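Ticket #4471: structure export looks truncated?
Reporter: QA, pipeline team
Priority: medium

Steps to reproduce: submit the single chain below to the structure queue and open the exported record.
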Amino acid sequence: MGIKVFPISAVSHKGVKELLYYIKNELDRMGNEPHVFEQEYFPEEEYVHSNEPFTVEYDEKSDKYLVYGPRIERMLGYTNLESEKGFEFFQKFLKENGILDMLCDLGIKDGDTVKIYGLEFDYYR
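Actual output as written to the record:
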């Protein structure tokens, strides 16, 4: 089956009507019953309480608090920190794994820099 192509122009509106009719016909053909897909993978269950080691330390040379380890790296790989839900998951991960407590134990203060692989942010409690 080939891919249907619709040449359109936003300036002259040519081809837009044909595209809209095609989309409407395709939607009508699909019906109204929603397609619900069940979540198959739950990353928060796999990595939030994992026993895999990680390190939290203060680096005097760079004046930064460093957090690293394979679990942390994977968590960042599947978390979209630009979305609200992803950022909330990131915060929950740091709290539930004791990372925030470890940073406090090291003497972190508001405005200090935390580096987690390529991500750097200012710490505020």
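Status: closed, not a bug. The export was complete when the record was re-opened. Leaving a note from the reviewer for reference: The CA atoms of residues 12 and 55 lie 59 Å apart.
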